[in-house]
Amino acid sequence: MQFLTYSETRRRLREVLDAAEAGKAAGIERRGSRVALVERDRLHGLLADSWRLGRPEAVAEAGGWSVFLPGSPIAADGADLDEAVEEFIEALREYAHDWEERLRLAPNHERMWPLVLFVSMSSDTEIANWVHGRQS
């Protein structure tokens, strides 16, 4: 992958964005840090299928439903599956907010960045589809 400098990227921004949109390698280097550019839908699909996120599980119990993400502190309950999924989406959004604010610095939460990125770039419908195992 060719990493362009910040100045070179500004001069060639259209070309860099076109490359990223086409699925080609595109990146920027600034102050020794490298950033890869990836078209949103490609990254979203990759994250949704990533083993790093795990798969949400839904369980019918005690006259209601629970939805949880194994290996994470995120879980929700509802009277029916739809309500549990709605509550789970809200819990995911709250976790993503807390992660960005402070949890990202905690050793036991730092590995959750792919989940936070996925949640941050997803609509509620896309998250619900992920929970249900459907393609967005």
Helices, strands, pairings?
Layout: E1 3-5, H1 6-11, H2 13-21, E2 27-30, E3 33-36, H3 40-48, E4 57-61, E5 64-68, E6 75-78, H4 81-101, H5 113-120, H6 124-132
Parallel strand pairs: 1-2
Antiparallel strand pairs: 2-3, 4-5, 5-6
Helix pairs in contact: 4-5
Structural class: alpha+beta
How much of the sequence lies in strands comes to 15-25%
Indicate the percent of residues in helices: 40-55%
Shape: elongated
Distance between the termini: 29 Å
Radius of gyration: 18 Å
What's the overall average pLDDT, rounded? 93
What is the number of strand segments? Answer: 6
**Helix run count:** 6
| Major sheet attributes | 3 strands, mixed
Instruction: Report the order of strands and helices.
Output: EHHEEHEEEHHH
Ranges with pLDDT <50 over ≥5 residues?
A: none
Strand order of the largest sheet: 1-2-3
Produce a short descriptive summary.
This protein is α+β, with helices and mostly antiparallel strands.
Describe it:
The chain is α+β, with helices and mostly antiparallel strands and 136 residues long. The chain is built from six helices and six strands. It has helices at residues 6-11, 13-21, 40-48, 81-101, 113-120, 124-132, and strands at 3-5, 27-30, 33-36, 57-61, 64-68, 75-78. A three-stranded mixed sheet has the order 1-2-3. Strand 2 (27-30) and strand 3 form a beta hairpin. Helix 4 (81-101) packs across helix 5. The mean pLDDT is 93.
